[in-house]
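As a representative case, we now present a protein record of this kind.
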Amino acid sequence: MDRIDAAFARKRVFEAAFLAMLAGPAIAQRAERPDVNVGDQWDFVLYYGTPAARPNRSWIITSVSSTAVEDTENGEQLLLTPDLNVQNSPRSRESNPNALRFPLEVAKRWQYTSDWVFKPLNSNGRLDVDVTVVRHERVIVPAGAYCAFKLESEWPPLGPGC
């Protein structure tokens, strides 16, 4: 092997080691379902269209069991699955919500089908969803900087002609 080939081979080994070093922490990341306790309160922002920064939703945990997490949302009944998916809220209802499935790990994938109702418009439908945990990353939001998993969900277009 001449000098150029040897240098190229060392460069490739270094690149592979460097990439493995970068990939190692991401691959090793795993998140179990967070502990949820009666009395926990989560305040957050939910908006459609015009961004808002002031919390307009408040969830307060009222009961935790192996089959459900019962809460209130701004004083109205809210029901979450054990994996913290919204099953029934003042705005919507789903038959099989599975947008989250703990533990979360990079490259984890799952599929689910769920019938949904959007209460304000009395509209309904069915979703066939593919979910992938894409990566573990640092995100910055008005509440601060956090390490988080990025999940991507894909489903066919809704309605005729889409």
Summary: The longest helix spans residues 3-28. The chain has a mean pLDDT of 83. Residues 32-154 form one domain. The helical segments are 3-28.
